[in-house]
Structure formats: C-alpha cells, structure tokens
Amino acid sequence: MPHTISLTRTYLRRGNILGWQGLVAVDGVAYTWMGGAPGPSHVKQLSLEYTSTKSIFTFDVAGKVLMTVTFLSPVYPDDMGRQSQQFSYIVAKARSSDGSQHNVQIYMDVSGGTLALLSLP
C-alpha cells in the first residue's frame, strides 16, 4: 500500500503540522480513519485509487463496516483559476460488511492552528 492516510500526519511547508483528523464511530465505538493524533485505534486501509481529479480511499472498520472516502478536486486544464485553488469536495459512504445493521457516524475537522500559518498583509 503506497500511502496509509489513517497513520499519517500531514505537513505543510517548513515542517508545520496540518491538524487534519478524521474519525468514524460504529455502534458507539470510535476509530481514526485519517490523521495521526493519539486517540482511537486506526481503521484498516484496504485500497487507494487515484485519478487526475480524485483520490478514493477504502477502509475496513472493525470488520463491521466498509467505508469509502473520495476527495474530488474539480480541475480543468483550461481553467487556471480552479487549478490554483487548494480545496477538495469530500464524499464519505459507509455500508455494512458483516450483514448486520450498524449506527455509523463520520467526523472530520481541520485544526484552527492551520489558519495561524497563513501570512496576512
């Protein structure tokens, strides 16, 4: 597996940490699906697919749920404005992998410390 998103802290230039964390709770038990902060145990990343506009991660959550997270960056070769924007749409889906019904909650956030790294005029 080339990159495991659930075990990695993302770094900005000059070594500053981007606090981007993703959690998923299945039947009230929390797991980490993105980020390296200490806390809940990590999900198992099953695959990573990527194209020029998408990165699709698939995770096994405790043998109960299969979760897919897609990061989509709508970029067009003739639109320099969109190419220069650093953002993605994020779609998260979950389905049972063991045949039972589960209560699933997905959470993600970016720390406020990230904004402190920006230079303002």
Helix/strand layout:
Blueprint: E1 10-11, E2 17-18, E3 20-26, E4 29-34, E5 44-50, E6 54-61, E7 65-72, H1 80-84, E8 89-96, E9 104-110
Antiparallel strand pairs: 1-2, 3-4, 3-9, 5-6, 6-7, 7-8
Biggest sheet layout:
4 strands, antiparallel
Unreliable spans are none
User: What integer value in Å does the Rg equal?
Assistant: 16 Å
Q: How far apart are the first and last residues' alpha carbons, in Å?
A: 42 Å
Shape: globular
How many domains? 1
Name the quaternary structure: single chain
What is the N-to-C succession of helices and strands?
EEEEEEEHEE
Task: Please work out how many helical segments DSSP would assign.
Answer: 1
Instruction: Determine the mean pLDDT.
Output: 80
The total count of strands amounts to 9
- Spatial ordering of strands, largest sheet: 5-6-7-8
Overall helicity = under 10%
Q: What percent strand?
A: over 45%
Q: Helix/strand-derived class? A: mainly beta
Describe this structure in words.
The N and C termini lie far apart (42 Å). The mean pLDDT is 80. A 4-stranded antiparallel sheet has the order 5-6-7-8, with no helix packed on it. A 3-stranded antiparallel sheet has the order 4-3-9, with no helix packed on it. Strand 5 and strand 6 (54-61) form a beta hairpin. It has one domain. By secondary structure, the chain is mainly beta. The protein contains 1 helix and 9 strands; from the N terminus they run E-E-E-E-E-E-E-H-E-E.
